[in-house]
Design goal:
178 residues, mainly alpha, 10 helices, Restriction of telomere capping protein 4
Length: 178
């Protein structure tokens, strides 16, 4: 895993203090996904959960949820937690058009579509690569990131806690914002 990370120039220690703000700065791009429904991750999730309204697939949204990659690429579990906090701030439940994302539930949409789009955007910017290349790195680096950057890592926990505090103190965007 480590040799692949080094050869791919994946940051071994991403700056978790900046993740929340970087995701918030990407609001317009993420709002486009939420508003237009155009996303490879969204199409894959809809296909997975909506195949003939497959009862088992639909119920799995309430269980463990992640049918795709979990985590946030090389940002790992810790980055994923910060990204989810930022997304809950940017996209409260009332701001998401449930018809547009059907058959997905709100949480599934955040966790399996917007969180992955946000992680891909971070990777794209970090490495100066195309969106398609960033998706490839995202997929290849998930296992590495989840092993390297666990959400209970004492060095990273303060950044996750800061993201949660920031969300609780701020005013979220509303539907009229996009």
């Amino acid at each position: 895993m480590l040799p692949k990370a080094i050869s791919g120039n994946w940051p071994l220690n991403p700056d978790f203090s900046l993740v929340f703000d970087r995701v918030c700065c990407d609001y317009l791009a993420l709002a486009t996904v939420a508003g237009s429904g155009v996303s490879d991750f969204l199409m894959a999730a809809k296909e997975h959960y909506g195949v003939a309204y497959n009862q088992d697939a639909m119920l799995s949204q309430y269980a463990d949820g992640c049918f795709l990659e979990s985590g946030a690429g090389y940002y790992g579990e810790a980055g994923y937690q910060i990204i989810i906090s930022a997304l809950r701030h940017l996209f409260p439940p009332q701001s998401v058009n449930l018809v547009q994302i059907h058959p997905l539930k709100y949480d599934t949409f955040l966790q399996e579509v917007l969180a992955h789009e946000a992680a891909v955007s971070l990777i794209e910017t970090d490495l100066g690569i195309s969106y398609a290349e960033a998706i490839k790195v995202f997929r290849e680096s998930c296992t590495f990131g989840n092993h390297m950057h666990k959400s209970d890592d004492p060095e990273i926990e303060p950044f996750i806690a800061a993201a949660v505090r920031q969300v609780s103190r701020s005013t979220p965007h509303t539907t009229s914002d996009f």
